[in-house]
Specification:
It is a single chain. By secondary structure, this protein is of the alpha/beta class. Helices cover about 25% and strands about 25% of the residues. Strands 3, 5, 6, 9, 10, 17 and 18 form a 7-stranded mixed sheet that branches. It has a 6-stranded parallel sheet with strand order 13-12-11-14-15-16, sandwiched between helices. Helix 9 (about 275-285) links the parallel strand 15 (about 255-265) and strand 16 (about 285-290). The longest helix is centred in the middle third of the chain and has 12 residues, at about 175-190.
Length: about 350
């Protein structure tokens, strides 16, 4: 049986290895993709450190993948070997009530790549043909890979959950990979002003470079006064917590205007509070949880990159070979160099 190199996460010991494993065979409706690049995401770290429970005893991680089709499975039409593609980071179960109604986008038992089935920290990965996105010829495969989560999840947060409108004021807490792209996308849809909030001066400076109008230290005792000043005394229409800590969640919520929306994107095991129900009712603030995107969003983003409307040239902070995946994981965990997104190249 032909083999390939692949990273494997072992749930019992919470360890990773790079091993020789059989090259998977695409089934009906599937394709085999030769992986060009795959992102290293904080959710990958969360599986390794136990924050996210393991679903399988062993699994190949990696869910932000681009590459070329190496083999087409039975019944697949519209795709051919050599096509440049982005792989969807999840697939519908096809058996839940919503899927049986044809509403696959709202599957209640969505299967997440690299958790429920093998991902793309490997030379090859299998993907459903129905979840592929074609990569325009002028879009580098490095940038295409991160469209599968690092950019599409912020897109979903800004456009679908937050419903940011032209001229609305936006605050972003945490300017890592997710927060940086929230800033770019909020600017793209016409938000004004955009306020970046973090504790790292270098990260705040980068946020200004990619589209934030103001950048403030979250520890600044005058933070509230500064946000009030740049929003004409109103506060923020929409705040995005891209960190997920109790402190960032509650601080973002406190700086919303009456009727403002807090979109929680970052995740942790901490438990913030929204305060009294009386104040929540009087201020009419909304707290919205966000996860993921729709597959069509990836195509939209690929088009924006292709047309030069969305610049992701600064989003790739480094590329590591598959054999050095452990070093890439450690670099992200330590925030070495304040990476926006690191990639694995098999």
């Amino acid at each position: 049986t032909p083999t390939m190199r692949a990273q494997r996460f072992h749930a019992e010991t919470k360890t990773i290895t790079v091993e020789d494993v059989p090259i998977p065979e695409p089934g009906p409706g599937e394709v085999l993709v030769k992986v060009a690049f795959c992102g290293i995401c904080h959710s990958d770290l969360s599986l390794i450190n136990g924050t996210f429970p393991a679903m399988l005893p062993e699994v190949t991680q990696g869910h932000e993948a681009s590459g070329t089709i190496a083999k087409v499975g039975p019944g697949v039409t519209g795709w051919a070997e050599g096509d440049r593609v982005i792989v969807a980071a999840g697939r519908p179960c096809t058996t839940c009530p919503n899927c049986r109604r044809g509403n696959f986008a709202d599957c209640t038992q969505i299967q997440i790549m690299a958790f429920a089935y093998d991902g793309a920290w490997a030379e090859y990965t299998v993907a459903q043909a129905a979840g592929l996105t074609r990569v325009p010829d002028n879009v580098p495969l490095e940038q295409a890979a991160i469209l599968a989560d690092a950019v599409s999840t912020p897109y979903g947060a800004v456009v679908r959950t937050g419903k940011v409108g032209v001229g609305e004021s936006v605050g972003v807490w945490g300017l890592g990979g997710v927060g940086t792209h929230v800033v770019q996308l909020a600017r793209l849809v016409g938000a004004a002003p955009i306020v970046a909030v973090d504790i790292n001066p270098e990260v705040l400076e980068r946020a200004l470079d990619v589209g934030a109008d103001h950048a403030f230290d979250s520890r600044d005792e005058q933070l509230g006064a500064k946000i009030a000043e740049v929003t004409g005394g109103r506060g923020l229409d929409v705040a995005f917590d891209a960190v997920g800590l109790k402190a960032t969640f509650e601080q973002a919520l406190s700086h919303l205007t009456v009727g403002g929306r807090l979109v929680s994107v970052g995740m942790s095991d901490q438990e913030p509070t929204v305060g009294s129900t009386t104040m929540l009712g009087l201020t009419k603030k909304q707290v919205l949880g966000h996860l993921g995107y729709k597959n069509v969003d990836i195509e939209t983003l690929a088009t924006l990159v292709s047309l030069g409307r969305l610049d992701l040239s600064r989003s790739i902070s480094g590329i590591v070979p598959l054999e050095d995946i452990a070093a890439g994981i450690e670099r992200l965990e330590r925030h070495e160099g304040n990476p926006i997104r690191l990639l694995v190249q098999p």
